[in-house]
Amino acid sequence: MSLKVFVLKYKNQLKAMNPKYDEIFSLSDNEPIRFRDKDKVKMTFASIADTHLVNNEAATVNLNNFFQDLKNADGKFDAVLMAGDIADYGLKSEYNRFFDVFDKYKNEHKLFVTMGNHDVRFTFGKNQKIIMNKAEEYLGIKTNRKSFYSYDVNGYTIIVIGTEKRVLEKAHITKEQIDFLDKELARATKDGKPAFVMCHQAFAFTHGLPEVWKTGDMGEQNDDVRAVMEKYKNVFFINGHLHGGVFEKTFEVLNEENNVYSLSIPGYRKKNNFGYTDCGTGYYGEIYDDKVIFTARKFVEGKRVEAEYSRFEIELK
Ligand SMILES: [Fe+2]
């Protein structure tokens, strides 16, 4: 190998490792999102996870593409669910980057945020405050310095839970949170409506755990949280963290009899690990009187995901 080729190869390897050089995607408006039936749809939301924002231009552009793709849709998106790991290093500047982008769209959607392990691994208290203050600001609610809340959009309840302390990659879900979840799910589902719960971490042994991500599950309170979720009918659990992609284990049933499901949102910033692996991908949900539809979308380019496991349609019970 000549010296020139060697240097070039080395430079390219360095570039690939350096977040400064994240790819910047351009958004197309040729394939706008179209709902199954925009006259009958009762609530719509889009969900992404693991944006892992760093301080580079790509972070802003690629995140902006997500919101702009929602704006280009043939129909309105009521809510956005960001399933945690908003920032990569948990820096204030990274959160400013996220919320500065969202501020341009804040009149279009209700934003739901939760904390991922990257958000709180260095500075729990400070970042919990940043994130929960934003939940308060955008939804007009009070969180009382806790990591959980719920809010109704068009009559459908979205419940957010999250860690109350730093426990490496997992979550610490307090008894207070579990009781809150129980009470809120009882209220939300009493008239037969579906309810949605979001947490960064998934349940143990779901979505290919632990093989897909060794330390990827919720942690100590896993079984207690899951037991509460399985008590109620038509509950949909949205989570991130696993960077799985769109593959056979992206969506799975937690309790067949009660119609309780879990959806693992692919990671937004980086290439995912299984099946359809493109970054910039998430899912959007359409809620109808009789069903819920989840569809994968490469938001960062405004493209449909033509792959197996990209659409799930669940009849409500
Ligand atoms: Fe994570």
Tertiary shape: globular
Strand tally is 13
Number of domains: 1
Work out the radius of gyration: 19 Å
- Which ions, cofactors or small ligands are bound in this entry? fe (ii) ion
Largest sheet: 7 strands, mixed
Mean pLDDT: 94
End-to-end separation in angstroms reads: 65 Å
Do you know the CATH architecture? 4-Layer Sandwich
Structural category is alpha/beta
List segments where confidence is low: pLDDT < 50 over at least 5 consecutive residues: none
What descriptors fit this protein?
317 residues, alpha/beta, Purple Acid Phosphatase, chain A, domain 2, 7-stranded mixed β-sheet, 13 strands, globular
Structure description:
There is one protein chain. By secondary structure, the protein is of the alpha/beta class. It has a single domain, classed as Purple Acid Phosphatase, chain A, domain 2 (4-Layer Sandwich). Strands 1, 2, 3, 10, 11, 12 and 13 form a seven-stranded mixed β-sheet that branches. Helix 2 packs parallel to helix 3 and helix 6 runs parallel beside helix 7. Bound molecules: fe (ii) ion.
Layout of helices and strands:
Elements: H1 3-17, E1 43-48, H2 57-71, E2 79-82, H3 92-103, E3 110-113, H4 117-120, H5 124-139, E4 149-153, E5 156-160, H6 175-189, E6 195-198, H7 222-230, E7 235-239, E8 251-255, E9 260-264, E10 281-287, E11 291-298, E12 303-304, E13 311-315
Parallel strand pairs: 1-2, 2-3, 5-6, 6-7, 7-9
Antiparallel strand pairs: 1-10, 4-5, 8-9, 10-11, 11-12, 11-13
Helix pairs in contact: 2-3, 6-7
Concise account of the structure shown:
By secondary structure, this protein is α/β, with parallel strands linked by helices.
